[in-house]
TrEMBL record, chains A, B, C, D:
The keyword Lyase applies. Residues 37-63 are annotated as: Disordered. FMN binds at R125, S126, S127, N238, A239, G278, K293, P294, T295, S296, S297, R319. Gene3D superfamilies: Chorismate synthase AroC. This reaction introduces a second double bond into the aromatic ring system. GO terms for molecular function: chorismate synthase activity. HAMAP family: Chorismate_synth. It comes from Steroidobacter flavus. CDD domains: Chorismate_synthase. The gene is aroC. Homotetramer. This is Chorismate synthase.
Length: 368, 368, 368, 368
């Protein structure tokens, strides 16, 4: 399969560039009978949308999704679902000045090397705009997972540059433009972003995502492990440079007696595994953390070369996010939903006859 | 495709359990004409082999690989290569005592939940023994990459529990049982492992892998990015809980002006990208780091449940590694080779007509 | 992959129903640099279009294709190509009368059994209207094959019910609404269709397709043979019940001394193989023949059951082709182009280093 | 995936050449809990085995299969099943004389063109010996289909050269070396083969296969239709040049009123569809027919060229079947089983929630 398809049974194939007429995707393999309409998808697009705050790029677009197929009388038919979002606010002239040079840290150089030339308008296919279709497709997966399996997926901004945020209030994450899980830090975040923008620079971020209610048994080792597919899906998001499951890199310095999650008849006593053991979901929360690099499109001048190999200085003006991580929360949620959905169908295909013996979850410290 | 196949054009499909009669794999899609024999594969198996030091499990097996097909008169024919390694030192009676209970932190529980029952002998399919075929298949990919493209792949132990190792002497990595890149730290490592074993505990590790000479252009965005497939392949290794490319999680607190790798006509001035921009190789070194959790099979007693859900105490005796990370270096090298090989063929399939314009590498600080 | 994707490196994923707002597809894996525009695709859609003659269904639609992505400044960029065709002439009320019953010989029954319910408007996803995207995608493949490899693909109607047509004038096939290769038989065909329509019945057809200039070496045995993928692609066309390569079923009664195509330094002396030996193209013409059943939507009353299992009589009025085979020629050509394109890229991916030793073609009887 | 893997959820990947040390395969995705042992597979291998009669090639090999993984305590574990058959009767010296030339009608030429050189011993990978692993893997699928779903699969020789055989006694097919369904024709078949062998020639054959008890709903249109995957699987068998489903090519001259299978509350009144409508199984018998060409390895001299392009005369001595179709019945049965098994799991993955409303079968003429 070529590179723009995700999944094996529940698949998402996307197309579209930042400044083309439209972006779209095909969701294939969705079980029939799911009630779905544009109204189920649009709110998730709103959360992702550029322009929700002055801290993300000022592109003004409604991102209005249209369902073109696969739904009849309000329910999925089991046939492929075509989704389309038209681009309405392309300002391509902004990009004329970078068409003949490579922004350092950007995909400009590698696209040119791979394909021989590139659509330089707004980053073309390499633009983060592409993730809009991930969120749209993810909305369908999330609805199925929530309604049929009781799975809920929640992400949040865990770190912005030097500022580490604690998950104090997950229920308020969607109420602020940073997806901060700590409402008491909003002013601090705002101030940090104002200074960053003033400096014409950008910064990295960490986003965490948690899926609760995931049934045990999802994952197809030895290669197509649930955590391997999660790592794949997360690393496929623009700007992601690292992925952790559960304790992640902290497990490097853990002892086995500390890391392993002990089991009692009432549940697991901890969740260092992040909900995945041997590549298969355990029924505990699936816990994922990703690192996003600072965007490369900044005003601070940088050294680079042009198409002829001559040295040039690059300054990126135009609309750009000083922190792409600020928009990554809904995208990471969508990717986790897509992976879980695909693995649920795959597991059901092979193992529909097997009945899980247990339904253990993680016991919280307080103990419910 | 079911879960035991890796890759799309250069594919590896594996089978085999820890205590079955044999393990094997099929390498499909290898270009014809590559000179290959068991002698090319065996040394890499030796490096991975259990029993190379007293710090890894004392299973004594030659891991003798046989090429069963796909090679004629010393060269690959383009048809599938069947590889087989017989198990000769199974001591299944060691495992009778854990057959009715789940080791905490182990795949015992999830395999049982997924499939309804499990081959409990030595972990069955979830055993790290499975990785022997990854190394065997990887040896073929490495040879092609090295001979045809000039790609070299080098891994090393970057951290053992609390001990961080600097890459002072990569040429000596294979000369010590820890794959340590710093020969001056060997005694310290040895002492740490002796204490760990004495305590009946285990510890995590970090392993780094670097591929040099990778041509620019490999990777198929937006999903099948080179880094996404690397993350997938690495996370599919037993015990891996985290993957980083380039600066990885350090990029969270980096500024854009710091992270981006500036370009001059002579080369890149840094490599925070880890050799991948926009999901496509840049020609710089591909730099990967992985976190391995401490193994769950330890002597320190732990709480768990049995098959009927009753509470039990689990103590794992038998042959087990106190640090699976010690053996992970050759495995991580193999996985990186397999991903690069697959992406090279995929890129060539789609873009054989395109000529790369540049061949920039990272300029070293000293400046060659 | 779910069921709506064709190919492995050059892939086509389609969506859309007969009476939904639009049909579309994503062509992924097209090599960069191919000059393409809507003007290259539209003529092939015209050839397929319903309403080209009074013998096919009278739906009046322009089938205007839009390229939504993957093309920049007139050339493919190597990124996915999104294609869209809006439905503009749906008359869904025609189908109210069959919504609660199954047309005998139609997919009504099986879609309902598989998915629990169905989009009954115009056959929904099972409508032959779906093939419009195959033709659109095929146009891109054909252009690449023709311009880069010199491959030409030509189909024709070989049989209409009892009327067998000889390939007397392939150059005139596109000049008549039957795709007849024998201009002298047009009146006869017309008369046959008039009588058939008058009787309210339908009839089957045979279509042949030939690809010339195919390079030797395409096909990936033992499963993904070129002929196996051709059989797959052809049988996936609505109404196709049989596929032959070369001598096809005639080879059942042939002797080996008769069937084998002898070779001379000047070329092959015959082409019973149909251009494929051992699943790999030989460089001879690839010759394919398919059988299309008579459409099931006819006026002649037939016995069936309704959604509750009660016996009903079914009469299909509305717009229907009395011979779906009449429109199958461009579709079969497109499918052959798509398979050849995918196999060309796959072969190039694995075997780009190999140089073909010979370039033998079939010697024609006269001997050029 | 490269070309040696069949299926998507229930996959079979094979390796091995005619004269290598062994052939093998990996069956991945088999549901856990199926009782299986070598004793379930061996009888199907015996039926396929060369040397069962003097009319097939005289290679004497036990074809003893070993299960190397995926089965524990007599039941499948859900992990990949490794199967191995060692070659014990290679007589490679027979092939020295054809190593530098291409047998006309054989894959010699195309393998050489594709890969640059070939394993000429016994046809290497292109040998029909490869099908032994298809039969072994198929035996597992058949057992699951039979025991869990009540599906039975029965093939037979429908035509040998000019001799057409009627299915008079399907229960006796396995009792004669021709797989003839008409015991009264055995002498005639024997005499025909004796004459053919005396002439040093070969002949084609037609084989039919029928699957009964197939549940409605299998098949994933618009591309991965059940009939499309059957066509693929059948055409991937050595020497197959044509595939029909149901009425097949006879439907070309049928009227719609004749072809369509009318439905009553008691069942379908005919089965021209061959059990597949719109690419989805209807619950009727799945009926497949294939054409096998005469083998190209014959004693009658033929014109060809050598590796340098010079004209040569080719006479193939050694062990060869004068009619490969005689051995095709168990192979075709196996392929049909593999396709049905894969589609059953795929359907279950996507549509496990859907309950079929009807369970109609074909009413036999007599009317049971």
């Amino acid at each position: 399969m070529s590179g723009n398809t995700l999944g094996k049974l529940f698949t998402v194939t996307t197309f579209g560039e930042s400044h083309g007429p439209a972006l779209g995707c095909i969701v294939d393999g969705c079980p029939p009978g799911l009630e779905i309409s544009e109204a189920d998808i649009q709110p998730e697009l709103e959360r992702r949308r550029t322009g929700t705050s002055r801290h993300t790029s000022q592109r003004k677009e409604p991102d209005q999704v249209k369902i073109l197929s696969g739904v009849f009388e309000g329910r999925t038919t089991g046939t492929p679902i075509g989704l389309l979002i038209e681009n309405t606010d392309q300002r391509s002239r902004d990009y004329e000045k970078i068409k003949d040079r490579f922004r350092p840290g950007h995909a400009d150089y590698t696209y040119d090397q791979k394909y021989g030339f590139r659509d330089y308008r707004g980053g073309g296919r390499s633009s983060a705009r592409e993730t809009v279709m991930r969120v749209a497709a993810g909305a369908i997966a999330r609805k199925y997972l929530r309604e049929r399996l009781g799975v809920s997926i929640q992400g949040y901004l865990a770190q912005l540059g030097p500022l580490v945020l604690e998950p104090k209030s997950l229920s308020t994450v969607y109420d602020n433009p940073f997806f901060s899980p700590d409402p008491s830090r909003l002013e601090e975040l705002e101030e940090y972003m104002i200074n960053l923008r003033r400096d014409g620079d950008s910064v990295g971020a960490r986003v965490n995502v948690i899926a609760s209610g995931v049934p045990a048994g999802l994952g197809e080792p030895v290669f197509d492990r649930l955590d391997a597919d999660i790592a794949f899906a997360m690393m496929s998001i623009n700007a992601v440079k690292g992925v952790e499951i559960g304790a992640g890199f902290a497990s490097v310095s853990q002892k086995g007696s500390e890391h392993r999650d002990e089991i009692t008849p009432q549940g697991f006593l901890s969740n260092n595994a992040g909900g995945v053991l041997g590549g298969i979901s355990s029924g505990q929360d699936v816990v994922v953390s990703i690192a996003l690099k600072p965007t490369s499109s900044i005003i601070v001048p940088g050294r680079s070369i042009d198409l002829d190999g001559n040295p040039v200085e690059v300054v990126t003006t135009g609309r750009h996010d000083p922190c792409v991580g600020l928009r990554a929360t809904p995208i990471a949620e969508a990717m986790l939903a897509l992976v879980l959905m695909d693995h649920y169908l795959r597991h059901r295909g092979q193992n529909a006859d097997v009945t899980s013996k247990f339904a253990l979850k993680t016991l919280l410290p307080g103990g419910d």
